[in-house]
Amino acid sequence: MIQTLLSVALGGALGATSRYLVNIALPRVLGHGFPYATMAVNVLGSLLMGVLVVVLAEKSGNRFAPFLMTGVLGGFTTFSAFSLDALTIWERGQGALAAGYVLGSVALSLLGIVAGMALARGWFA
Asked: pTM (2 decimals)?
């Protein structure tokens, strides 16, 4: 168990560091008027999650999932896990539930950030 935790921690450090570098590089190249870096890590993380879920299953490599999927991609972007969850529900034939999950997650996350900002602004007012 401790080895798995250390693996996730190392992967998370690598993923978070990668995200930080993308957050520095892309605005310098593409400008600061749009969250290109966030979009890029979300799309790339989802793409890599899709590749990994198939490759690890096909090659009996699930022992690498904690490091790669939870650690690296989790540190890089949690959007990849969200995308995998939504697609898994969809592939089970539960289209309405998948749509509800996507819409609910986005709406509740937006409400969460609004509520968090309001609370924090109240503390510092």
From this structure: 0.78
